[in-house]
Design a protein that fits this description.
209 residues; alpha+beta; Glutaredoxin; Glutathione S-transferase Yfyf (Class Pi), Chain A, domain 2; 4-stranded mixed beta sheet; 8 helices; 4 strands; 56% helix; globular; EC 2.5.1.18; glutathione transferase activity; glutathione transferase; transferase; Glutathione-S-Trfase_C_sf
Length: 209
C-alpha cells in the first residue's frame, strides 16, 4: 500500500482539514513540511497553495478534491451523505465555509490575532473591526443550522464539519471568539462534539514551529 502524504504547513486550516479527514477515516498519513514560496513547489500546486496530496502515482491539490479522494479511496466511515440532495447540501456548506466563513473569520480575524503575532507583527485592529459584522452573520447562520441537528448536515458527521472545525478552533482562541461563541450555544455544543472526534486536539493544536 502506497504511503499517503500531505504536503503543507501546520498553521493552514486546509491542511488541518485534510489531516482531520484522515483521522476520521482511520488512515495513516504523513505531513511533509514544504516551502510553498519555493518556485519548485509549483510543480505540485501551480498556484503555490496548500495542501497537496501524494498517494502512489496520484497527486492532487485543493482541499475539497483531497478530502473527497481520501473519503472515497479508503475504507472507514463515510464522510459524505448518500442522497443527491444531502450531498448537495454538504457541498453548499463547504462553499459557504470557503467563501464567507474563511474570508471573514480567518483572513480578517485569525490572521490578525494569531498568525501575525507568530511573525512578531501587531494585529491591524481596523481590519478586525471592519470584519465583525460579517463574522457575526456567519456565526449566526452556522448556529441556526446547528440548532436543527448535531452536525451541519443533520445526524451525520460530514466533510463540511471537517472544513469548519479548524477555523472554529482558531477562532475560539481569539478575544472575538471568546466573546461571541458563548452567545451561540448550538455552535458551542457542535464544537464540543468535534473535540470528541479522533485526534482533534493533536491536529488543531499541533506545533506551528
Amino acid at each position: 500500500m502506497s504511503e499517503l502524504v500531505i504536503l503543507g504547513l501546520p498553521p493552514s486550516s486546509y491542511v488541518r482539514t485534510a489531516l482531520m479527514v484522515c483521522e476520521n477515516k482511520g488512515v495513516n498519513v504523513r505531513l511533509q513540511m514544504v516551502n510553498f514560496r519555493d518556485p519548485d513547489y509549483r510543480q505540485h500546486h501551480p498556484f503555490a497553495r496548500m495542501p497537496v496530496l501524494q498517494h502512489g502515482d496520484v497527486t492532487l491539490y485543493e482541499a475539497l478534491a483531497i478530502a473527497v479522494y481520501i473519503d472515497e479511496a479508503f475504507e472507514g466511515p463515510s464522510l459524505q451523505p448518500t442522497t443527491p440532495v444531502d450531498r448537495a447540501r454538504m457541498m453548499q456548506w463547504i462553499s459557504v465555509i470557503n467563501e464567507y466563513v474563511y474570508e471573514s473569520v480567518v483572513r480578517s480575524c485569525v490572521s490578525e490575532r494569531v498568525i501575525k503575532p507568530m511573525r512578531s507583527l501587531a494585529p491591524d485592529e481596523a481590519v478586525i473591526e471592519a470584519a465583525l459584522p460579517e463574522i457575526v452573520r456567519c456565526l449566526d447562520v452556522l448556529a441556526d443550522a446547528l440548532a436543527e441537528g448535531p452536525y451541519l448536515c443533520g445526524e451525520q458527521l460530514t466533510l463540511a464539519d471537517l472544513f469548519l472545525a479548524p477555523i472554529m478552533a482558531y477562532f475560539s482562541i481569539t478575544p472575538e471568539g471568546r466573546t461571541m461563541l458563548p452567545d451561540r450555544p448550538a455552535l458551542g455544543a457542535w464544537m464540543s462534539r468535534m473535540e470528541d472526534t479522533p485526534n482533534y486536539f493533536k491536529v488543531n493544536f499541533m506545533s506551528t514551529d
